[in-house]
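Bumping with the actual sequence this time:
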Amino acid sequence: MTWPLSAVSKKTTIRKHANFRNRTRPRMATPYTLEQARHEKIYSQISADYLSHVEAQESPRAIITGGQPGSGKGALARQAENAFAASGSCVSIDVDELRDYHPQYKELQRVNDREAANLVHPDASAWASQLIRDAAAARKNIVIDQTSKSPDALIDLTKQLKAAGYNIELRVMAVNSEISEQRIHTRYEKDKADNKLARFVPPEVHFAGYIGLPESVAAVEREKAVDGLSIHDSNQVSIYEIKQIDGEWDRQPEGKAVLEKERNSMTLELHKEQVAAYAELVDMLEKRGAEPAERETIEARHLKATRKLAAESFRQLPQAEALKAHPELADAYASIASTRVTARDHGLSPEQRHVVMARTRLNIAAAIERGTTPQPDYFRTAFDSTKPPAAAVRAEVKQMFALEPDSKINAGNISAKTAANDLEAIKLPVSDAELKQTAKFVVEKLNEIRKCDTESGKAEIRRAGQAVAALTAASPALATEITAAADIESKPYIAAIVEQGHNLNTTQLTQAQQAKGPDMEM
């Protein structure tokens, strides 16, 4: 079956791919899902509004966005629309905008603006899918504003567009989840303040968009599913581009790694912006008389952002500058000075002192994030000879898994890797019984988190693996027991770690810490 390129050009045709046939997909029902006849009647109006003014193209292009809600992907879509304006415009498809066609949506927003979007989503999503099919069948340029959270759905979409003769780009936002969460709340409160019908994104929807995107990026590079991929920072600036030339990428594909690195690279300036944004949100909720639970949530986020800013200032800034911005850090720097003196008094070598001070800074920064008072002397606290030293190691491993996700990213790697190095560098005796208890906890945790197929779960698996490596380096005799304690899914993973030999040594750690931040001198 052939289809005309446009109503004007009857001769130029394409063969319509099976995936673009006019089929009706089942819609998941809510109490507000429309009857099929009304659903289709409304789509007729949508089709006229979206398709009639857009010219067909001999070489059509499709630009797809990716990013969790609040990441700024809408700005990428607007950029694409503006670029297409000079060449016959485009069909811009956004499920959020199609919700407005649902006859009950506005009333639902007035009644419960936090649930309204989900209640009409089945119809809006079906309209978006049909609009993509019809726009592609007519060979019109398309901009698809979506999260791209599902690798399978994204690959299926790109296959459909490829079969219809499209050049496809995927443009992705790499934004930390805390920034996008804050933007969701800010957008919602500003709409409320302006007496607009506000749209709220539930946390679970935001989370799904966040964790799914890296796998989607990996999938399109692996499958060569798009002609070009670009990754953008929180200001929509491109930080990574890759294109296909004659069926091959023009550079080594590393989109997933770039995406995850940028997400986790919160600059000090971004932390400052977070604190200011949440301070503004606290005022906005107070002015509109928000419910106590809502206000408590935002106030807690404001406090968390404030503590993170202080911790990052401690990590990144020279002492004088950090104290000027955060006088409350005086106790933290006093603890640093006290620990340095104690390390010297104990006769530790420069290499050993590097290990101790690296751990001290790590522990103090984590304490600042948690809002707890730094200990006056971390050396005495962590390595008090009156208690088994391995108990301190075990306690720290447990603490590592109790940290917030972002804290784990910052602290987990160093914490796990240094557990064995501290014991070796300071030459304290270790009880095998104590180490066995620590090992048991780590393996149980590993068995548990290997069942979690998410990015945060995978990150925890890596950290648990590092803890296993640290423990077996401290006591090689534990290797057999650790492997035996693993369940059937974890056993091959742990066995591989044990076989690698765990090249953990004080010199490597010292080099890593020397490159990490200021105030590392002994």
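The tokens above came from a reply further down the thread. The chain has a mean pLDDT of 78.
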